[in-house]
Amino acid sequence: MRAIEGQGLRFTVAMAAMLLMVAVQSASAGLIAYDGFETYTADTALGGQNNGTWGGAWSAASGIYVRAAALSYSSGTVQISGGSNVAQVEDAVNVDAATARLLPASQSGTLYISFLFRVAAGQESSDFMQFALNNDTSIANSGSIGDLSTSDSKLGARIGGSNGGSTTGSTTNVSGGTTYLLVGRMKKSSSASPGDPTGVNYDRMDLLINPSSLTEPADGSWSATRVGTASISSIAYFTLRTAGLDVGDRYQFDELRIGDTFASVVPEPATMTLLGAGLLLLARRRR
Contact 241/97 with Cβ under 8 angstroms? Predict the structure, then answer.
């Protein structure tokens, strides 16, 4: 009898493991790079940290840390929990590559980026936060989303050459203490244009603010769109550029995802659901 019970318990454990494996595979399909900052020790510098799925460690200016804080987002079918750590930009960090990280492989197709974003303290209209995708750590010739104006706090999209091009702002002003889910899409047009006669360079950046659906919006339904040639045909880096920050400013970001599908950066909350189902099976079997 005990042997049969032992076999049943082993079967249940195996089923729980299988459910977890399926969940992880489903959540990671199309995902290229991810960092939730949970594997780092709180109150340490971000520079030099090297966990997650990337091609190298974080490079970061002095003033960017891993801090103990919890960011989360829930709207409609989109639910993201950031755990207990965040990356935090503090004080007067004002450099073109405040922090950067190499992707595990260079990308040449449509690329998506998402992250949780919150101003924890010190927000001013002159503050500037540019989350960019580029082929090096220079902001020139990149596509980016974020608070891209030094005259207001509107979130926007930018793509192009000098300083990463010009910005198209959304109608959303950043509000201190509010957590936003920002999603960017950087892509190439299907045909040549005057600024890109070969048609091989990235020339469009879209921004989506606070999605409530797991379905990718159609063109024209994003929060902001900027068209302009970035003069790069591949992407190898994520880079954060900051400006206008003062002592006492605190900007946080978390759950950074870069992928080649919308679903990979706005994932269905299936991992924890299936994991919970597996653990429930195990608990019932033990009882």
Answer: yes
What end-to-end distance do the CA atoms of the chain give, in Å? Answer: 16
Give pLDDT tens digits for 190-201. 655 555 555 689
Task: Please state, in angstroms and rounded to a whole number, the distance separating the CA atoms of residues 258 and 36.
Answer: 12
Where are any strands of DSSP class E within 91-149? 99-107, 111-121, 128-134, 142-147
Q: How far apart, in whole angstroms, are the C-alpha atoms of residue 170 and residue 159?
A: 15
The pTM for the full model equals: 0.84
CA angle 249–89–237, rounded 5-degree value: 145
**Helix segments in the chain, DSSP class H:** 2-28, 262-265, 270-286
Domain boundaries, the chain: 2-268
Q: Is the pLDDT of residue 218 over 70?
A: yes
Q: What fold does the segment set 2-268 form as a domain?
A: Jelly Rolls (2.60.120)
Q: Is 109 helix (H, G, I), strand (E, B) or coil?
A: coil
Helix, strand, coil percent values for the chain (each to nearest 5) = 20, 40, 40
Residue 246: DSSP 8-state = -
Q: How far is CA 253 from the centre of its chain?
A: 8
Cα–Cα nearest to 203, from 251, 166, 173, 149:
166
